[in-house]
Amino acid sequence: MPVAPEPAGPVAGCGDSVGRVASTAKIEAFLAERRNLILAGIRRDGRPQLSPNWFHWDGQRFYVSTLRGRAKFTIFRRDPRAQLLVDDSTGFRAVILPATVEIREDLAAELPRFRAIREKYGVAVPDEAEQLRGLTEEGRVLLAITPDGPPPSWICWGLD
Questions:
Q1: What share of the chain is helix, strand, coil (3-state, %, to 5)?
Q2: pLDDT band for position 159 (50/70/90)?
Q3: Which tens digit of pLDDT belongs to each residue from 69-103?
Q4: Residues near 87 by beta carbon (within 8 Å), at least 6 away in sequence
């Protein structure tokens, strides 16, 4: 079984194995693919809590839908610090970055972002009234995740 190579480029900055910085277009293209975003938060006892999530990236923020009953809802209500990983385990490509999470509970205002997540992953999107009703009944909220720095400050490999 192949072992993922360690990134040989710079530790900080979206570089590949020879140190070139990945273009914003290549980062955007990678984030547009159907991948999981691994979201890490900090439990009350200091241990990390990780969860795989579908996401939408709009060029400024990542968006993740979650339920009020999930651990990540409780964690990010208490402490908005996060770490994100989007990876391609077969192509040895990855993006890792620190970020800050904001919980958005105005579901009607966030319908376009909930819709974007569903569309990205090929899930049918009901009309707005039905979608809003379903999100409300499920107890959904939207996590708006803002990177702590621009893409050149992220850790990336395999994108160039």
A1: 30, 35, 40
A2: confident
A3: 999 999 999 999 999 999 998 989 999 999 999 99
A4: 35, 38, 93, 94, 95
Give the separation between CA 83 and CA 86, rounded to whole angstroms. 10
Q: Which of 67, 156, 49, 71 is nearest to 105 (CA)?
A: 67
Question: Which residue segments constitute the domains of the chain, with CATH numbers given?
Answer: 24-157 (2.30.110.10)
Tell me how far apart the terminal alpha carbons of the chain are, to the nearest angstrom. Answer: 24
Q: Is 17 exposed, middle or buried (0-12, 13-18, 19+ CB in 10 A)?
A: middle
Instruction: Give yes or no for residue 116 having a pLDDT over 80.
Output: yes
DSSP H or E segment with residue 63:
strand 62-67
Higher pLDDT, 121 or 13: 121
Contacts of 139 (CB under 8 A, 6+ apart): 67, 68, 69
Distance of alpha carbon 67 from the chain centroid: 16
pTM: 0.88
Closest among 51, 19, 49, 53 to 35, alpha carbons compared: 53
- Which residues, including other chains, have CB under 8 Å from residue 25's CB and lie 6 or more apart? none
